[in-house]
Amino acid sequence: MDIMLYPIALFAGDGADLVIGFIDANGNVKVTPRFAGAGHFCEGKASVADVSGRSGFLDLRGDLAIPMLFRGVSHFHDGVCAIGAERGVGYIDHAGNWHIEPRFLIAMDFAEGRAFVSDDGETFYMITLKGARVGKDCFDRARAFRAGLAPVMKDGRWGFIDDQGTVAIPFAFEDTQAQHFKSGYASVKVGGRWDSSTA
Questions:
Q1: Which of 34, 32, 40, 43 lies closest to 77 in space, CA to CA?
Q2: Distance (Å, rounded) from C-alpha 48 to C-alpha 8?
Q3: pLDDT tens column, 99-142
Q4: How far is CA 164 from CA 115, 130, 138, 145, in A?
Q5: Which of 27, 50, 104, 151 sits 20 to 30 Å CA-CA off 161?
Q6: CA distances (Å), 177 to each of 7, 156, 164, in order?
Q7: Is the pLDDT of residue 4 over 50?
Q8: How far is Cα 162 from Cα 166, in angstroms, rounded to an integer?
Q9: How far is CA 188 from CA 35, 125, 155, in A?
């Protein structure tokens, strides 16, 4: 059985500031609460941040596996992690090396070998795990791939694209976000009402 650690937050002394550490499944403290921020474990690592905003990553033993060289709290997906640096956001590998150099303003998590990024904070486009752009289209909003499709918004309407950027389900849906596909169905909003669409 794999060991898993879970974040906990405690008030630091008499102050109102919270500090974060980690416990195991039995409630034993494995990492003394001392971090200003932390994420959950994904792919065997959890990001932690100090009071200066610098972040690194713990392994499942609670040891600092990747030094505090980054900005923000994030998670590993598809073997890489979107994380900030002084010059933008990029993706690191499990050794803490840049897999895709920090050049984006916003970088979303990878899923199924694709991620959405933004250079201006207004529009998003898709990239591969090698950092190559997929297609020429930009979207107002985007969500991660699930079951081979990603919900994306263009001109105020949501639709779904495949991993090549081809529109698989037209931009016909309303609301702030279309839902992911699960078991061949996704919830979407049309005419003010939620319904299920099939892939």
A1: 43
A2: 12
A3: 999 999 999 999 999 999 999 999 999 999 999 999 999 999 99
A4: 12, 14, 13, 12
A5: 104
A6: 29, 10, 21
A7: yes
A8: 6
A9: 39, 22, 16
Answer whether 48's CB lies under 8 Å from 33's CB. Answer: no
Residue type, 131: G
Other beta carbons less than 10 A from residue 102's beta carbon: 19
pLDDT, averaged across the chain: 90
State pLDDT tens for residues 156-185: 999 999 999 999 999 988 764 556 666 677
Which pTM does this prediction carry? Answer: 0.86
The total number of residues shown for the chain amounts to 199
In the chain, the domains with their CATH numbers are: 6-104 (2.40.128)
What residue type is 54 in one-letter code? R
pLDDT tops 80 at residue 198:
no
Closest C-alpha to 142, from 172, 122, 164, 168: 122
Contact 166, 132 (CB under 8 A): no
Query: Hey, which residues does 10 pair with through a beta bridge?
Result: 19
The amino acid sitting at 144 is A
Residue 33 is predicted with a pLDDT of 94
Question: At 102, which amino acid appears?
Answer: P
